[in-house]
From TrEMBL:
The protein's name in its UniProt record: GNAT family N-acetyltransferase/peptidase C39 family protein
Assigned keywords, A-Z: Acyltransferase, Transferase
Matches recorded under InterPro entries: Acyl_CoA_acyltransferase, Bact_Acetyltransf, DUF3335, GNAT_dom
Segments forming domain N-acetyltransferase: 10-156
Pfam families recorded: Acetyltransf_10 (PF13673), DUF3335 (PF11814)
Amino acid sequence: MNATQEHQAVTFRRASADDLDTLEQIENRCFDGDRLHRRSLRNWIKAPHGEFIVAVQQDKVVGYGLVWCHKGTRLARLYSLAILPEMRGSGTAARLMSELGSATAARGYLFMRLEVAKSNTAAVALYRRSGYRVFGEYHDYYEDHSDALRMQKTIRYLSIDKTQHLTPWYQQTTPFTCGPAALMMAMASLDETLVVDQKQELDIWREATTIFMTTGHGGCHPLGLALAASQRGFSVDVLINTEGPLFVEGVRSAHKKEVLGVVHQQFVEKTGQDTHIRVVYAEIGQQRISDWLQEGYAVIILISTFRLDGKKAPHWVAVTGIDERCFYVHDPDAGDDSQLAIDNQYLPITREDFDKMSAFGSGRLRTALAIKKRSR
């Protein structure tokens, strides 16, 4: 039987108690150490928080995959994967991983993580082809004292529904231009002719910067971003839950605080003169964001990065969708070189986490922009 026939003949189903003997045999053939014992296999078959799927060829179990679904979170873990040696190279392992991902995502889980021996190059290559990326390493992890790589994949992306907003992704090119990057993504989602590049990014930053922030160059003021969008042909709704100068708690110098106040007042005056900008001082609810998306607006919102990197920095992201469980965002900050662009696109954030992330600083600043292309 050739590889194509093997691929077609393999089916998948949930493991049952009748599979226990075969599963134990597979475990013993596939692993020299760190094996799941018979009792553990039996418990996992019955576990309500597990996805235990077997691969079957001609009524014979030829492999299995086991996922542990963490209670109270949206994170799952690929606990074990084993395929009989004679089935390797048939594509069964990749198909089994796809089955596990689909079953786990159907439970509402968003991310799948796994550990794999660093020396197991074939398995590492399989996981990479399946969309996993390395995000850490465990030293002396296995019984034989070998190291393990930690890998992760997003298994649940944007639902295809009326709140989806297809948006091109753009990576910010400096540590301080998340605002321009998020705004460019939003504008480009509404205008395919818009030039999205570093020149535009820096132009918008100069137009919208607050001048000072906690460290380094200033970030972008929501009213400054609104003015930049208006100058590029968009109508803008701005929601801010405070009328005073923004980001002043991020600087210690009295002089810098004074300058921030002057910049804030300039933005207030300029937006007041722009008939294409509407500023509303009010709290931002999830329903308002959902309504914007359904009405065809592109939305960007300020978040705190504390839950992302522990730094409590203000950070602009583009909102790309919403469903019953999550908001989805494009994050323009791709982080270090090991992070893939796909991990920053349609990134799912639970509604509860989104509420916490979208309040910045001790004053719990909330602000967002909704833009639409103006008719000519």
